[in-house]
Amino acid sequence: MFHPSTVLHIADLPPQRKRRRRRYLTVPAGDAVLIRPASANDELDIARLAALEERPELAGGERLVGELGGRVVAALDVRSGRSVADPFVPTSAIVELLGLRAAQVRR
């Protein structure tokens, strides 16, 4: 328990000094996530993801795919950073992982 004067002091601190909530990436429990380079066998999966999102397909350059439980649920173009993902699966963490891996590949 804090003394009332301490609580008032914390409330007066600038925003950057207050505790920040940590943001954690979450994926469904128990499912394995695999980040790998896309192959020719992934063309249909990437086209399916683009169609689900109603966005243009990713160009044929270097791409990465993210698999969740053995199924391709996200893809990212390494050069442009543009991604497509399954809108019916929680993929924001996977897309962020793809972006981190793409940054490593570009080096």
SSE map:
Elements lengths: L3 H8 L21 E5 L5 H11 L9 E6 L2 E7 L5 E3 L6 H15 L1
Antiparallel strand pairs: 1-2, 2-3, 3-4
Task: List its traits.
Aminopeptidase; 107 residues; alpha+beta
Could you explain how this protein is built, in words?
By secondary structure, the chain is an alpha+beta fold. It has one domain (30-106): Gcn5-related N-acetyltransferase (GNAT) (Aminopeptidase). Helices cover 32% and strands 20% of the residues. It has helices spanning 4-11, 43-53, 92-106, and strands at residues 33-37, 63-68, 71-77, 83-85. A four-stranded antiparallel beta sheet has the order 1-2-3-4. A hairpin with a 2-residue loop joins β2 and β3. The longest helix has 15 residues, at 92-106. The N and C termini lie far apart (50 Å). Residues 1-8 have low confidence and may be disordered.
> How many individual helices?
3
CATH topology: Aminopeptidase
SSE order, one letter for each helix or strand: HEHEEEH
CATH first level: which class? Alpha Beta
Number of strands: 4
Task: Describe the structure concisely.
The chain is of the alpha+beta class and 107 residues long. Helices cover 32% and strands 20% of the residues. It is built from three helices and four strands.
